Amino acid sequence: MPQNEHLILRELLAREGGWVSGAALARRLGLSRVGVWQRMERLRAAGFTLEAKRARGYRLVHAPEQLYPALVETLLRGRPRGFSLLVLDEVDSTNDEVLRQLAAGRPTPFAVLARRQTQGRGRFGRSWHSASPANLYASFGFRPRVPPARMPLFTLWMGVNLCELLGHFAPEAPRLKWPNDLVYGSRKAGGMLTEARIDADQIRDLVFGVGLNVNTPPDAWPADLARRAVSLGQIAGRPVDLNRLAAALIGRVLLAYTAFVEDRHREGFAERWHRHDLLRGRAVTLLEGGRRHHGTVVGLDEEGALLLRDEAARLHRFRAGEVTVEREP
Ligand code: BTN
């Protein structure tokens, strides 16, 4: 059935709402026409709206709004060999599930997506609001075998790629708030959480987690997030297709990862970061190890550290920390 389901979905999607002949599908799948009809009924039960007409066949009117694994897989183009996808209804944290899968020896690369998380995690041990299946919770498992010194640029490089991708799903791309936030103005549309296990002098396990606020309506955020969060759908003024976004995200992350491992990410990185950078030229406070530092953001150094100029024009370099924008330049 899964292969049949992919094939049916591929045919329906390729017609972009046009008709697919039931007889032709039956021939291709080696099924009876009743067999095709049964599969269509299963898709209907899963949330697809399909129209059927005697002389014309079937057409796809509406795909499910929630994540649907076979649809994500069908929409994935250029999937690298060996990639596998796990879509769960609910999990504690997709990052934790990837860690468990890596420990159990699952071949990489793979991705874990969930409709909900019960213990979604953000930076500094904070929780990530993960109750809504209208949003995307995704984590990727890799075994890059690169020296740890390469890692500081990883999340920043992924951030640039995600901004560029999201610019195709909303009228404007989000900005990057160093090091891991995707924002529109002062509101967060997404965040990244990278976790690595180091073996001697190499990265053994690498988990890259992304949370994207996709279709949560403005009045549905919990009170503490209402002023700080925004969804792509709000920015776009209409719902964003979650399954298409999931497939595009997977494709882009895998491409970006390959470029990173092959050391092809450096060229042009600074310019691409600059294009999406929220902070350059802004007066900020950076909290690091319990200390507050004030200054104006100058940019990033080659290793991805944030450069701040203080009031005495001294330059300071930070590899980690939490930034708050103080005021406009
Ligand atoms: C942050 O902004 O602090 C990072 C948020 C990262 C959230 C994502 S949701 C998918 C993955 N699973 C988690 O538990 N966290 C990341």
Describe the protein.
The structure is a single chain. The protein has helices at 2-14, 22-29, 33-45, 69-75, 94-103, 152-166, 232-236, 242-261, 269-276, and strands at residues 49-53, 57-62, 84-91, 110-117, 136-142, 175-177, 181-184, 187-199, 202-212, 283-288, 291-300, 306-309, 315-318, 322-327. It is an alpha+beta fold and 329 residues long. A seven-stranded mixed sheet has the order 3-4-5-9-8-7-6, with helices on both faces. The protein has a five-stranded antiparallel sheet with strand order 13-12-11-10-14, with no helix packed on it. Strands 1-2 form a two-stranded antiparallel sheet. α1 (2-14) crosses α4 (69-75), α2 (22-29) packs across α3 (33-45) and α4 crosses α8. The termini are far apart. The model has no long low-confidence stretch (mean pLDDT 94). Biotin (BTN) is lined by residues 93-95, 117, 120-123, 126, 128, 137-139, 180-181, 191-193, 209-211.
Which ligands occur here?
biotin
CATH class categorisation of the largest domain? Alpha Beta
Radius of gyration: 22 Å
Classify the secondary structure makeup into a structural class. Answer: alpha+beta
Q: Which residue ranges are poorly predicted, with pLDDT under 50 across at least 5 consecutive positions? A: none
How many strand segments?
14
The rounded distance between the terminal residues' Cα atoms is: 59 Å
